[in-house]
Amino acid sequence: MLSLSHILPSGGLLARAVLVTLPLMACSPVYDWRELSLEGDLVVWLPCKAQVVSRDVPLLGQRWPMTVRACEAGGQRWAVSQIGGVPAAQREAVQQALDAALAANLAAPLPRAQVPVSSGLASAQGVRSLELRGRRPDGAAMVVSLWSFAFGDQVGQASVMRAADVAPDPAADEARHTFFESLTLRRPG
Hints:
- The protein is of the alpha+beta class and about 190 residues long.
- The protein has one domain (about 30-185): Protein Transport Mog1p, Chain A.
- About 25% of the residues lie in helices and about 40% in strands.
- It is built from four helices and nine strands.
- Strands 3-4-5-8-7-6 form a six-stranded antiparallel sheet. A three-stranded antiparallel sheet has the order 1-2-9.
- The longest helix has 15 residues, at about 90-105.
- It is globular, with a radius of gyration of 21 Å.
């Protein structure tokens, strides 16, 4: 019978510890899902701990306060962006300008939007999904899956950015599906 004592010299405690813990490390999850409650009763599940950045973005000749929560997991960058304080009369225009700005940042054409089926965002206006194919400033080819939406005085985007040359991965596809389907508006009862 083969045992660790036959393979490792006596006193090889470090090597034995590595061999014992290696299978446990292989079981660690790529995605560490967590629920975030955001402005305007928006809830989303992110697969990693988000960093929060706030800044003003120029859209339609004025500056709008935007908060971005983003993280990286599974070789993808996950983000939820929100602009608050948008008057109802400007909501659609701000949403379109925000989508166009993201496409411009990637030097990507703005494709025709699709209307995703989402029970969680049923009360939101202008819910649409886009898939942008472009390049980062460093030239790397990227694909961005994007849901854009508006509700109350908020305009938002949920996006997942990944390298364009990555082979299809069913687990990554399922994670993106989980992320987008988790978008929910909760109204106080």
